[in-house]
């Protein structure tokens, strides 16, 4: 699991080290390609509001519940997580501060390895950022070959 869940940079790093990144783009692609949704990604099925309630109460704004209907299952599937604190908006904007807080909280509640790094603000920090992520990813177990590593949830 990566946070922000829309970060293409993190997604690429995770994939390069032999793990399958769990990202929102995959969830949205599945919705778009699902038969029965007439105007994707605007329409939803009756399942999504119910799924969102699993992660956020009915009093929570509907946008949070809607996002959590996509992000929540990724958190549950994750075997490890990378959280980037205070990312630049271009790094992978999630679009909703309350969803961001809830996402990070739920990740931290899981009993999985979690790496938290600060978003780099200069070249030296950028090198250290990538190095920390690479070391973390190398420390995680892999199934041995690239086909099986797609089964890992990162």
Automatic annotation (TrEMBL):
InterPro entries: Methan_mark_5 (IPR012356). It holds the Pfam family DUF2112. This is Methanogenesis marker protein 5. The lineage of its organism: Archaea, Methanobacteriati, Methanobacteriota, Stenosarchaea group, Methanomicrobia.
């Amino acid at each position: 699991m990566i946070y922000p869940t829309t970060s293409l940079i993190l997604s690429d790093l995770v994939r390069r080290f032999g793990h399958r990144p769990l990202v929102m783009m995959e969830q949205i692609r599945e919705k778009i390609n699902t038969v029965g949704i007439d105007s994707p990604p605007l329409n939803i099925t009756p399942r999504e509001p119910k799924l969102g309630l699993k992660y956020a109460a009915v009093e929570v704004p509907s946008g949070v519940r809607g996002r959590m209907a996509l992000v929540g299952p990724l958190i549950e599937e994750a075997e490890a997580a990378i959280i980037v604190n205070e990312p630049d908006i271009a790094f992978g904007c999630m679009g909703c501060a309350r969803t961001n807080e809830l996402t990070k909280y739920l990740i931290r509640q899981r009993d999985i390895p979690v790496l938290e790094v600060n978003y780099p603000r200069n070249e030296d920090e950028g090198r250290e950022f990538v190095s920390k992520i690479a070391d973390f990813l190398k420390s995680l177990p892999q199934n041995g070959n690239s086909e099986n590593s797609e089964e890992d949830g990162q």
